[in-house]
Amino acid sequence: MSSSISKKNPHILAIPWPATGHILPMVDVAHQLALRGITITFAVTPKNLYYLNPLKSLHDKTTNIQTLVLPLPSHPSLPAGSENMQDVTQDYFLYMVEALSQLHHPIIQWFKSHPSPPVAILTDAMNTTWTHPLASILGIKTISFLPSNQYLGSTVWSYYKEMKKEFFNGEMLHNTIESWGLVLTSFTEIHDKSFDAFKAIAKHDRVWGVSPLLPVQAAGSERGGPAAMPSHEVLAWLDSCPVDKSVVYVAFGTEITLNKQQMEALGDALDRSGVRFIWAVKKPGKGVENDSGDQSVVPNGFEDRVAGRGLVIKGWVPQSMILKHRAVGSYLCHLGWGSMLEGLMGGVLLLGWPMQSDHFYNKKLIVDELGAAIPVCEGLGTIPHSAKLAQILADSLQLNRPERIAWMKIRDKALNAAKQGGSAYKALDDLATQISNFTP
């Protein structure tokens, strides 16, 4: 690791939560801060280093992006080699936090030996049980990063009180609220009331909505890692689709794995619907296999039956590129916040199947409050009715659906927020300015 950080540039340490949907948005924020003169050191474990490749490539002529690569301490309850939540299930959440918390001492040693140590820690809220105390020991500020809707919406205050009942989650949320500042991957035009509620809870105005953000991409470096199917092949397939908004994209993020019955119901629905589609199938990770091996199994003969009309990709996909393509019209997803934002920027209608955690809060916002997405079903173990789902898939491509019209109005607000002078752009400017005013 290079230590040639300019003393003129304020320096912060970024500690992401090891999940794709958390690392990538922090990378996007770091890119924007680096463009505004902030130096960022990313603390990551070896297997998560590749997420930073596009960011490092874009800033290779400066010292604004640095890395601190630390081995993940072993934990008796974590499967060997697991360094990212996509390798395991949500049941391993607490064990991952406990393993990461053992990086406390190595980071202190690094900090003490650094010629220009950071003036703040930009930490994912999932890490605050140990990063907030760490910042206190180091005598620097904590800026909490929240890449989800879990803490937002009209229920933010009741959610805060509810979470305090559980010691671990209550501690995490308490430390997040006690942070010097909060960076939210949202924008005030969609969340104005919840921003005010969060400021009231935190008792200060240092709350920044910095989304939507342009995804960090660089030539020669694939976002999130190498795709299971080369991007040019996916692009060629999409280019061959003669009608705009005629393709349904199906994907459930990096942490959701469907069981055999769900895969069969979804496959049957795609078959019956007659629509063109791309289906991204996640490979099961450590901790999600079972004795019958029925996770992520594409139904027998399915790919032959839909050849030409459908594309099944097993593994990582160039999702942002797919969602922005003119041929894609709708997106069946779990309503993870990052996926929702990518769908918004791509201009595709969302079909919601919330599975866990913040997905249900996102559904409440986008379906119940805004009327800007189509509900499909709910629950991690729910098996959808294939005939009903087939009809939803086919109907979702209609351009005059009220949900699509409402979603496109929200998209216009998002694009304006991201422009120079927009709310998200100004929030990034203010965040960088305030960090620049920190004194070592």
Protein described:
- 49% of the residues are buried.
- With 440 residues, the chain is of the alpha/beta class.
- The radius of gyration is 21 Å and the shape is globular.
- Strands 3-2-1-4-5-6-7 form a 7-stranded parallel sheet, with helices on both faces. Strands 10-9-8-11-12-13 form a 6-stranded parallel sheet.
- Helix 5 packs across helix 7.
- It has 2 domains: 11-217 and 416-433, Rossmann fold; 231-399, Glycogen Phosphorylase B (Rossmann fold).
- The protein is built from 17 helices and 13 strands.
Short description:
This protein is an alpha/beta fold and 440 residues long.
Keywords:
440 residues; alpha/beta; Rossmann fold; 2 domains; 7-stranded parallel sheet; 17 helices; 13 strands; 41% helix; globular; disordered N terminus
Helix and strand topology:
Blueprint (H helix, E strand, L loop, with lengths): L10 E5 L4 H16 L3 E6 L8 H6 L6 E5 L23 H9 L2 H10 L6 E5 L3 H11 L2 E6 L9 H8 L3 H12 L2 E4 L3 H15 L4 E3 L21 H9 L7 E4 L9 H14 L2 E6 L20 H4 L4 E5 L4 H6 L3 E6 L3 H10 L2 E4 L6 H11 L4 E2 L10 H10 L6 H17 L4 H14 L4
Parallel strand pairs: 1-2, 1-4, 2-3, 4-5, 5-6, 6-7, 8-9, 8-11, 9-10, 11-12, 12-13
Helix pairs in contact: 5-7, 10-15
